[in-house]
Amino acid sequence: METILITGANRGIGLALTEACLNKGYAVLATYRDEGSCGALKALGGDHAELSLMTLSLDDEASILAFAKGLRGRKIDVLINNAGVMGPVNQSLTDMDSAGWLNAFAINTIAPFTLSRLLLDNLSLAERPRIVTVSSQMGSLNRVSKGAFAYRSSKAAVNKVMQVMALELQEQGIIVCPVHPGWVQTDMGGSEAEITSEESAAGILELVEKLQPEHSGRFWTWQGEEHPW
């Protein structure tokens, strides 16, 4: 049985991914930020013995370090860096919340790098280790669009982080890919978005299951298609 670690598993895509993985027989380590946000996630535990719930604050390096230390010696087949934030309300050309921008970078860019780095020993115990980071086409340099400076730049940055990480981990056989989850009906995506969390999660999980070394270091969509950087 493979073990999948999913960050930000208490809602939206993360919650749907957790349920999809459990339904397909995976053991799931699901993280959430605090007790007040994990009601739906805890409800899944009653039906699935292979679900482990763990707290993790991705904007707190000490929390990430303690979390990784607690997993020492445990095999992780797949790390899904799902947790992310839209960033501050004010992130336009004329009105930027710089502190909020830094926080978006901390959670969307630095945390996936830090957690991935700290769990390399765990991943090395797996037969086909994979790191999949939920990014966004809003971070693609090939896509012409405006606004959301903090969010776009943090996702563009994590794309590059994952591309470089893929190259550096190639000899260790660790597959690393960012994935665009689609425009999803979540708190972030809004009710007018194109697909549900369940649809996005099903596509991402199918991609995770198919990933091979030759797919590493490439940007994918939830539909399993390569996305331009």
From TrEMBL:
It comes from the Bacteria. Belongs to the short-chain dehydrogenases/reductases (SDR) family. Transmembrane segments: none annotated. The lineage of its organism: Bacteria, Pseudomonadati, Pseudomonadota, Gammaproteobacteria, Alteromonadales. It holds the Pfam family adh_short. InterPro entries: NAD(P)-bd_dom_sf (IPR036291), SDR_enzymes (IPR052184), SDR_fam (IPR002347). This is SDR family oxidoreductase. CDD domains: carb_red_sniffer_like_SDR_c.
